[in-house]
Specification:
The structure is a homodimer of 195-residue chains. With 195 residues, chain A is mostly helical. Chain A is built from 10 helices and no strands. Chain A binds a DNA duplex (30 and 30 nucleotides) through helix 2 and helix 3.
DNA sequence: CCCGTATCTAGTCATTGACAAGTTCTGAGT
DNA sequence: ACTCAGAACTTGTCAATGACTAGATACGGG
């Protein structure tokens, strides 16, 4: 990709997005440099700006893409637990997207594409608890489930549970976690001594 | 703080840390600039570097401070649920610390102070599930509880549950979430239709 | 074939992080 | 009280970056 015979790159937008994902996954969003991405794509230093306006624009495009992928990943899940598993799988398979999606400070919050994609993903999340309305507060139930999946995914990506998960498949581990929770093994309100 | 009669600032380290917390809470870690912090403290542009080596050093110091504060906040909680509530409270009251603590890419992972503080906080987290060993896998139970609290805290700080929480106290809302979970209101494995 | 426009290049400026070298102050030891 | 080693801070500098502007090139509809 370093040399290029034609004046036009052909698919610079996708090339930059792909390179950005690599950089973010490896070194985080802070290490992202438009000029570096331009070099990787073999174009001049200002070329990426034409597609994304600025750094924030690029990150916003990535986040929107991420929400779209998440919506796809969650679609047609058989039940709530499986939806959680897919949420975790998404985070593991798309760590760069996931990171950017949940750092509002990096994004243009009012971007139309971002809002639309976010709404699609949000609808999928809500669909996961749509059938639980009569057993309690569906919205709260959804937030509880989302918190569990999101927290596990985040801790996973920040290397805070690597020891416990070990060689096990993270998705499988998460499945067992949900089993643990809903079987009542965790007496959250039970008193206990300070060790 | 803009003018200063003495050659030495007196407490530049603390001044820079405090200013950094303001910036991060308002605009995220990416907006952090050592030179800007120097200006706010009324010192020359290179003064902060003497205390923190570089940008990563500053962020690492903040993260270490954060883990110390978290360990304090969790200490002597009466039960697991209350420990979760305090975890959420910590995130709400120290959003800048919380953000930095869970972005490994920003930190020097092998920093001794960071590791020590992290270990203290980790010990407090483990203590929360120390009494549950006979009811199941204590480590997994701990990770489940941590995931729930961490996920809710993260979603809260990223403005992803503001609508649901509304005017309610986030801590109180989280308390009710744990109640929902452990009362078996959430049939995670129950089949359900696609809406 | 022509021209409007999308795509990309080249040049520039202010800002930043990092480093080096020099200056001012503090305080421990005698 | 004196010295001096080192901590705290300043000044100067360099390469890299984001953002902007103006201009060159190529594509595609009419």
């Amino acid at each position: 990709m370093t040399s290029r015979s034609t004046y036009h790159h052909g698919d610079l937008r996708q090339a930059v997005l792909a390179a950005a994902l690599d950089v973010i996954a490896a070194e985080g969003p802070g290490a992202l440099s438009l000029r570096d991405l331009a070099r990787r794509a073999g174009v001049s230093h200002a070329a990426p700006a034409h597609h994304f306006k600025d750094r924030t624009g690029l990150l916003t495009a990535l986040a929107a893409e991420g929400y779209g992928l998440l919506a796809e990943a969650l679609a047609a899940a058989p039940d709530l637990r499986e939806r959680g598993v897919r949420y975790v799988r998404f985070a593991v398979e798309h760590p760069a997207h996931f990171q950017v999606m949940f750092q509002p400070a990096l994004l243009r919050a009012d971007d139309p594409d971002l809002l639309a994609a976010k709404e699609r993903a949000s609808a999928e999340l809500r669909a996961g608890v749509a059938g639980l309305t009569d057993t309690g507060d569906a919205r709260s139930a959804g937030i509880a489930a989302w918190s569990l999946a999101h927290g596990f995914a985040t801790l996973l990506l920040t290397h805070n549970v690597t020891g416990a998960v070990g060689d096990r498949d993270p998705e499988e581990y998460f499945r067992s976690l949900t089993g643990l929770l809903f079987s009542g093994q965790l007496p959250a309100s039970g008193r206990q001594e300070r060790e």
